[in-house]
């Protein structure tokens, strides 16, 4: 018998006539995607940050299995922890919480950079919480649901979209974030969970969900008085969770857990702007955007010294150094 190449079939998703119908289909497809990933009873937990995406995952998983458990990692002043607690209290599910601080960040950083094979700033930010979460979860389960993919396919990075002057530019950045996800956020998630022998399942990356998302007009994704991202997703699940969860402001994972601010302060103590400028003068070096990236790059090179590894690192946006850096430090 000869070798037969696998030929995947294209996802078949319904068309819609108006916004209300699109909302209904969004809800139905997402519910199906979560149920599909829980069908074999392997999923025992949710990585719950407290953000919209993982909160919706928790809600839908609870509909399938009321005994599902949630796992959250956070620093003491993490902005997302109170929201995660609100979600688990609302659903009435068991909530495992791991608190960490500077000591754990310093311990984990070299391992996280090595396992994800990246020095890109925003990916390293998220790596700390991802790695700690995987190490925490594996003592309870080896299979969890996560919320990756929603920001890309439902236009969740609204802080960046508001910079652009017209819908064409916004659509361009939405498309770019989808196209680079495989070697930025998704690569980080896969490698760090693999390092901890954890399987993560991603309902937002279900073939039908993705196919349908590509049919939804941008004005349905970014809408409302403040041009809020993931608008149709929020409205599709309005009433399923408290409004302050559904309509919360987007925060990057590292912001919500509290990691980003600590890591930046640490890097600025150890690397100077002069060192960064000198590094970027050499054409053989990759262009780095901040002293923080140079700090991570030096750690990266300790275990991955071959120059070939530099070219494999995914970047969010190599032309915009401030693309994922424009947040304010929280008030003390």
Question: Mind explaining what this structure looks like?
Answer:
- This protein is 52% helix and 6% strand.
- Mean pLDDT is 86; it is low at 318-332.
- It has a five-stranded parallel beta sheet with strand order 3-2-1-4-5, with helices on both faces.
- The chain is an alpha/beta fold and 332 residues long.
- It has one domain (19-264): Rossmann fold (3-Layer(aba) Sandwich), CATH 3.40.50.620.
- The chain has 18 helices and five strands.
Give average pLDDT, whole number: 86
CATH class: Alpha Beta
The coarse overall form would be globular
End-to-end Cα distance, whole Å, is 69 Å
Q: Could you say how many structural domains there are in total?
A: 1
How many β-strand stretches? 5
Strand arrangement across the biggest beta sheet = 3-2-1-4-5
Strand-and-helix sequence, N→C?
HEHEHEHHEHHHHEHHHHHHHHH
Low-confidence stretches: 318-332
Helical residue percent band: 40-55%
Give Rg in angstroms: 20 Å
């Amino acid at each position: 018998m000869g070798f037969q190449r696998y030929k995947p079939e294209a996802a078949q998703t319904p068309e819609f006539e108006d916004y209300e119908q699109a909302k209904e289909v969004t809800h139905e497809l997402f519910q199906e995607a979560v149920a599909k990933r829980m069908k074999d009873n392997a999923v025992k937990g949710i990585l719950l940050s407290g953000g919209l995406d993982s909160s919706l995952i928790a809600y839908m998983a609870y509909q399938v299995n009321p005994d599902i458990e949630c796992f959250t990692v956070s620093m003491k002043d993490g902005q997302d922890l109170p929201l995660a607690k609100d979600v688990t209290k609302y659903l009435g599910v068991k909530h495992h919480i791991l608190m960490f601080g500077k000591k754990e960040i310093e311990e984990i950083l070299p391992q996280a950079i090595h396992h994800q094979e990246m020095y890109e700033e925003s990916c390293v930010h998220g790596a700390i919480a991802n790695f700690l979460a995987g190490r925490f979860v594996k003592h309870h389960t080896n299979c969890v649901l996560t919320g990756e993919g929603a920001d890309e396919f439902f236009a969740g990075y609204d802080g960046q979209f508001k910079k652009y002057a017209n819908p064409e530019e916004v659509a361009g950045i939405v498309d770019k974030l989808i196209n680079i996800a495989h070697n930025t956020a998704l690569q980080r998630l896969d490698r760090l969970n693999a390092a901890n022998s954890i399987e993560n399942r991603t309902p937002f990356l279900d073939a039908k969900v993705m196919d349908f998302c590509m049919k939804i007009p941008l004005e349905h994704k970014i809408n409302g008085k403040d041009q809020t991202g993931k608008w149709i997703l929020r409205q599709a699940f309005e009433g399923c969770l408290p409004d302050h969860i559904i309509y919360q402001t987007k925060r990057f994972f590292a912001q919500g857990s509290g990691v980003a601010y600590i890591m930046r302060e640490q890097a600025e103590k150890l690397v100077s702007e002069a060192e960064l400028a000198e590094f970027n003068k050499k054409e053989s070096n990759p262009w780095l955007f901040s002293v923080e990236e140079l700090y991570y790059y030096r750690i990266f090179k300790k275990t991955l010294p071959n120059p070939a590894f530099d070219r494999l690192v995914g970047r969010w946006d190599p032309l915009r150094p401030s693309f994922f850096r424009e947040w304010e430090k929280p008030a003390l």
